[in-house]
Amino acid sequence: MSFNVSGYEPAISTVKLSKCYQLYQHPKDRLKQFLWPHRWWGSRQYYRELWALNDIDLTIIPGEVVGIVGQNGSGKSTLLQLVCGTSTPTCGEVQVNGRIAALLELGAGFNPEFTGRENVLMSAAIMGLSQAEITERIEQIIDFSGVRDFIDQPVKTYSSGMYVRLAFSVAINVDPDILIIDEALSVGDGAFARKSFTRIMQMRDAGKTILFCSHSLFQVESLCNRAIWLNKGKMVLDGESAQVVSAYQSFLDQSTTDSTVETHFTSKNAPAQDKKHPSGSAHLEKVQLIADGACTPHTDITSGQSNVLINISFISDPSLPCPNIAMTLNTRDGRIITSTATWEDQFVIQRSPGGSGQICLRLKRLPLLKGEYLVNIYLLCERGLHLYDSAEAIATIQVKQVGRLQGYFSIPHQWENTTIIQND
Q1: Which residues pair with 137 in a beta bridge?
Q2: Sequence ranges of the domains in the chain
Q3: I want to staple 116 with a disulfide (CB 3.0 to 4.6 A). Which of 6, 151, 377, 388 is the partner?
Q4: How far apart are the C-alpha atoms of 26 and 317, rounded to whole Å?
């Protein structure tokens, strides 16, 4: 089946795409089902059905960058597997036009007994490269991975980082028409993660079709011009990324059953240790909160009266563009109340020739209403997309207030009396 959208043959199209898994309570039930598969022979069903994906109609034209969001178990990974051909649909159709490179379970197809070079040759051939293309690109693949010294050793001797880097290098160097990414934007160490992210951005800017699945709503909105929200195997919303992300975030905020709420930034739990020369990367060095002149990580302030100052210092590789900094204020249950970022405010950070920098963020007469709020700091690349480092819950702000106003903020406002005109 084929579609045409604005004169283009779609890169990916699905019609009533569905996937059902058979779940068995006991291993012996599989044997029973195999021996008595047909009900008309008097048999019974020894499994229950789980529809991971149900009636998905989707058309993606060449050059689109589409994000997929949804909670765990919503069907995101199942959809990607069906598009890649690593899983077969229970019903419906999927059509793909072009060469696919998939960043799903990196290295899942590697043979541990083969050398790194042999696995590169095998993986590239499976992805559709001719022998001439493989010969032309194999050195580029090895150089990008950074494991040249071990390329002729069996991959079973590799560290997990080396294994992933080699698999990633193969996937993004086969010149695909369609790139599929499932939570794989931060692989390896900081330097390799940045290099990988830069390559993906180059592919996006070159007009490649990208299907990007992530819990990072910030990255989805930043990278994608379109997003799809899946829930319990069904498509809830398909539209502009900002619209879909906003609707999905509201859904998460309303959910009281999840103990872990997803946030806009993919993040770590604590700031990294001081590093003088973080080659190919950047790290937070110190975050300090000062409230009403007192330096403390846990402070009490008065709504609309207190001033808060956040000092942030970082160390970066001076050969890289200067990084950006973002701050979010969160509630205890994970809701982002507000955020600010240097790139959004077009603030240019100054740093030393050695790569160090320090800035401060002033929050005057903080208009938060009563409650407890967490301060999170993020260090990102020059585009404000790739996350170098983070310091979550680095400080706690307990807000007291006079009066009984409800909510999170006291917004600027003014009451006025208006003249009432009476008709005689």
Answers
A1: none
A2: 282-400
A3: 151
A4: 55
